[in-house]
Write a structure and sequence with these properties.
This protein has about 250 residues and is an alpha/beta fold. It has a single domain, classed as TIM Barrel, CATH 3.20.20.70. Helices cover about 45% and strands about 15% of the residues. The chain has 12 helices and 8 strands. It has an 8-stranded parallel barrel with strand order 1-2-3-4-5-6-7-8, surrounded by 5 helices. Helix 11 links the parallel strand 7 and strand 8. It is globular, with a radius of gyration of 17 Å. The model has no long low-confidence stretch (mean pLDDT about 95). The chain binds phosphoenolpyruvate (PEP). Phosphoenolpyruvate binds next to strand 8.
């Protein structure tokens, strides 16, 4: 059975003391309210990974980074490698978020390298794909998302692909308050799963968790998570508020 995952993407928000207060609140609510089959991940800014990891201790909530370098070590000022994440015991890493693609020019070739580095360091990539509004309006969203998946993931062996989590995040729904409908989300998740099945076979495709991201909140999460091909969420804004985030997690059945 594939894993159910709710991952919070804090982006570049919170001071360290605010971050610790948020985690304390989440931990206080989550232990009693969250089902054992849902993996909760907090993808926090790099400098907070170790303090937050220490704060989480043995709780079921684990940490993720929001990016990693395509290099292992060396003269790459400001970068953080997957091997560094491994040395900090940070299990997850978001790769290819639309903000990285848009503001930092990350493309499929670079992301393929980053996915490879994450897997080589035994980290779980949360690989993001999704179309901008003009692509959706032109009706070419399926083609684009399939191309993003193919470019970054289709060089992997089936065994390695099974270690990847995919997040479908329509760019027009990120941070806009405009969520994809459950039907739109299900359609695209099914398209991605079918694409995985055509390359790797159905058994492999059925093992891959595909998360939905784009203005998920406590009100819409249950309907989105009830879709058969939606295995959880990548949650931005709502992950910055403890009650809202825990309610999103609780919406997972
Ligand atoms: C995200 O950052 O991946 C995201 C989906 O943000 P939001 O939930 O705020 O739309």
């Amino acid at each position: 059975m594939r894993k159910k995952i709710v991952a919070g993407n804090w982006k570049m928000n919170k001071t360290l003391s605010e971050a610790k207060a948020l985690v304390a609140e989440v931990m206080g609510m989550i232990s009693s309210e969250v089902k054992a089959n849902t993996q909760v991940v907090l993808c926090v800014p790099f400098p907070y990974l170790v303090p937050i990891k220490n704060q989480l201790g043995n709780s079921s909530v684990i940490t993720g980074a929001q990016n990693c370098s395509e290099h292992d070590w060396g003269a790459y000022t400001g970068e953080v490698s997957a091997l560094m994440l491994k040395s900090m015991e940070v299990p997850y890493v978001i790769l290819g978020h639309s903000e990285r693609r848009q503001y930092f020019g990350e493309d499929g070739t670079l992301l393929a390298t980053k996915v490879n580095k994450a897997l080589a360091a035994e980290r779980t990539p949360i690989f993001c794909c999704g179309e901008a509004l003009e692509i959706r309006e032109a009706g070419t969203h399926e083609k684009l998302v399939k191309q993003q998946v193919e470019e970054a993931l289709f060089y992997l062996s089936a065994d390695d692909l099974k270690k990847v989590v995919i997040a479908y995040e329509p760019v027009w729904a990120i941070g806009t308050g405009k969520t994809a409908t459950a039907q739109q989300a299900q359609e695209m998740h099914a398209v991605i799963r079918k694409q995985l099945a055509s390359k790797y076979g159905e058994a492999v495709a059925n093992e891959i968790s595909i998360l939905y991201g784009g203005s998920v909140n406590a009100k819409n999460a249950a309907e989105l998570f009830a879709c058969p091909d939606v295995d959880g969420g990548l949650v931005g804004g709502a992950s910055l508020k403890s009650r809202e985030f825990v309610d999103v997690v609780k919406a997972m059945k």
